[in-house]
Fold:
Amino acid sequence: MKKSLILGILILTLMLSFISAEKISLSNDDPKTDVIIAGKNYTIELVSASDGSATIKVTDSQGKSETKEIAENSEKEVNNIKIEVESADETNLKLSASIEVEAASEESEQEQDEQEKQPPKEVTPTGETGPIEIPKEETKPICNGCELDNNCYPFGYRKSGKFCSENKEFVEQSSAGNKCENNFECESNICASGECVSQGLIKKVLNWLKRLFGFD
Structure:
C-alpha cells in the first residue's frame, strides 16, 4: 500500500513538472532561481526591470542562455520555455518582477523558428519624412540612412555641422574651396561648379547685386 502511494506521488510530481506553469517572484536582492520545466533544468534570472517590462535571462543545463525584454501582461518564448511577465516594477533602485514559466509548445517553437528566418524590417527616411525613430523589436530593423541616437536620418540630412553620407554615417561638412557634389556637403550649404563656396563670398555677391539694382 505504501509503495503504491509513494509511486503515485512520484508519478504525479513528474506529470506536474511536465505540464504545470510555475509562478516566480524575482528581485535585484534575489535575481535567480532554478526550475524544472518539462523535465529539464533551467536558471531564470532577472536582468533588469522598469515600470512596464522586465528583461529575463534563461540558461539551460547545457549553459546555453537567451535574454529578452518582455512587457507586462505579455509573454515570449525564451530559450525554449514560455515566460509571461505578470508585473514589473522599479522603485528607488529596487527591481522586481512576477513571472509565470511553463514549457513552450512545439507549435510556438516552430513559429519562433519561422520568425527568426524572416528578414529584418527596413526603415527608409526621406527628405519629406525627416528622421524616423527606429522601432524597438526583437530583430533590429535596418536603417537605410544614418543611424544616430535610435533615429534613422535620410541621406543628405544636415546636423551639427555634419551631414548623412552615402556611407551611412555622419561626416563633417567641407569648408570653402573643397570639392563637392551637393550643397549639403558644404559648411555654407552652397556647392558651385564642384566647389564649396564661402559664406563671405556669397554675402559679397548679394551685396553687389543689391547695389547693382539699387536695393541699398
